[in-house]
Amino acid sequence: MRNGKEQKSSAALPTQIQNLWLKKILNLLPPIISNNFFDFLKYGIIGVVGTLLQTGTLFLVVEKWDGDPLLGSTIGFILSLLFSYAANSRWTFKESERSSMVLIKYTIVSCAGLILNLLILYLFDRVLGWWYGYGQITSIIIIPIHNFILNKIWAFKAQPAQKVD
């Protein structure tokens, strides 16, 4: 029969192992992400919803309305961008102001992410001659990190409080 101390220490072991793994994973990430990990998770959740919105719009325009895929993707990108801005400004970066300037900066970051995605796809497909899917998988890892960092330090940068004399 175990005493209370032995049971307590053996029950704490899985928690210690979990914490060790979490610390190792966080150490792999840039400090701006590891120090803001829960904001990064929120950003990721919103990104998944935004991706579903863009893809759903694309399929709706093409399959239901017999529209052009480029038009559907463009409409989807705009809807996703507006949704993601609204959701991130209220949930992920809620300490920052909401303004047309922040929306413009957010749009610039999103477009930079789109261009980076296209460059990665071009590199994998046209330069290296590899399957484009490898490029997209790479983009799925790199682009959210890139966009989160730029949004955190630039687009949604919390403005210091103004001193009133």
Description of the structure:
- With 165 residues, the chain is mainly α.
- It has one domain.
- It contains 6 helices and no strands.
- The protein is globular and about 60 Å long.
- The mean pLDDT is 85.
- It is found in: Membrane.
The helicity comes to: over 70%
Order of helices and strands: HHHHHH
Relative strand content:
under 5%
- For the record, the count of structural domains works out to 1
Low-confidence stretches: none
DSSP E strands, number = 0
- N→C terminal distance: 70 Å
User: Total helix count?
Assistant: 6
The Rg value, from CA coordinates, equals 21 Å
Dominant shape:
globular
Largest sheet: none
Secondary-structure-based class equals mainly alpha
Mean pLDDT: 85
Organism: Saccharibacillus kuerlensis
Family: Belongs to the GtrA family.
Main location: membrane
Pfam families: GtrA_DPMS_TM
Question: What is the strand and helix layout of this fold?
Answer:
Blueprint: H1 4-28, H2 31-34, H3 37-64, H4 69-92, H5 100-127, H6 132-155
Features of this protein?
single chain, 165 residues, mainly alpha, globular, transmembrane helix, GtrA/DPMS transmembrane domain-containing protein
Short summary:
By secondary structure, this protein is mostly helical. Helices cover 81% and strands 0% of the residues.
